[in-house]
Amino acid sequence: MKKVAIILFLVGLSFVFYAGVQLKSNKQSEKTALVHAHKILESSDITKPPSHLSFQSGQTIGVLQIPTIGKELPIVEGIDEDALKNGVGHYTGTVYPGQKDQILLSGHRDTVFTGLDKLKTGDPIIVEMQHGSFTYGVKDTAIVDGNDTSIIHSTAPNEMLILSTCYPFRYIGNAPQRFIIYAEPMGDFE
């Protein structure tokens, strides 16, 4: 019985070690992508948004700032696992800031979007891209089923920023729901 307990303890310890290595690796990838995003923004010439922006999956495209919870995160194109290891993913089927429609950004609840549930109505969310800096204010939140894709739809001519992550936040394993934040433009960038 003592050998079984020791074996189980070692297996459990190896799982914890593996999870720690994965978390550290993801954090390093996120940090590298953020440095790259800042270089892109520093070298860009801010003009009116082009009518057609195009990025490759996994490409770093900007920076997401959520001051209320102290987050500064790289935005990458796409929402596949490889993209989400580097930061917040932009859902390719939606537009970019300044294009007067829906922008959907997704991220993991246990890495980039920890603390997202602390946001309140009116809190600012800033998206910086090569074509400008765009500030949104939280309008509402919702919890939807994990398979619910009804949140992805055109909002034209109104611009709406949607942040999406798994829910509940402290759930172990694949969470069954999604936590959604709806934010509208603040100020005038029209």
Automatic annotation (TrEMBL):
Domain of life: Bacteria
Matches recorded under InterPro entries: ArgE/DapE_CS, Sortase, Sortase_D, Sortase_D_1, Sortase_dom-sf
Keyword Manganese: no
Pfam entry (one): Sortase
Keyword Transport: no
Alphabetical UniProt keywords: Hydrolase
Identification of the protein by name: Class D sortase
